[in-house]
Amino acid sequence: MKSLTETRPKPMIEVAGRPLVDHALAQLGDIAIRVANLHYLPDALDKYLTSAGLETVFEETLLETGGGLKNALPFLKGDAVFTMNTDAVWKGPTAADILSKAWDPEKMDALLLVVPKSQAHAHLGSGDFELTTDGQLRRGQSYIYTGMQILKTAPVAAVEETHFSLNRVWEDLFAQGRIYGVEYSGHWCDVGHPDGIAIAETMLKDC
Fold first, then answer.
1. pLDDT tens digits for 46-103?
2. What is the residue range of 202's domain?
3. What are φ and ψ of residue 200, in 5° steps?
């Protein structure tokens, strides 16, 4: 985000008059336990989130997506958790509700929320996954990962390293046939780069 993050962390960048973190929190629905990992310029974000009832965990060094989640596990309850990124804006149904309705812990260790490329905006990649007829995920390019999922905690806790990507966990689940996807029916915009701000604001107005 270049100069936009010189004095504030990315989750505090505003889109349509609201910080990105608010757009993310709106997608959590009725999830009661909310924990946020902080690293860059954490003070303002910590104050903002704790005033909204969240617990915060500070990463002195970046632990990546998997290591960050492993670091936060002591603050979470249950054997499965929702995880999400804050650099996206959504228009449509609440993301957590879609995941909750599709979640089947008997056959799933991970359920990722994906969006068709036709409903994704400002995303710079070529695509992430394919969905099989039974809902299992495969690597491919038809769907884009929205940054939100339900994931069982045991595969994360089992990784011995402290710094690792969730892709490492996913690869194990691919091999076991335990990673699934569900399609987001609304529109989703990647705001991980400066051009995404204006595109997201247009999406909110026009889609």
1. 999 999 889 999 998 999 999 999 999 999 989 999 999 999 999 999 999 999 999 9
2. 2-206
3. -65, -40
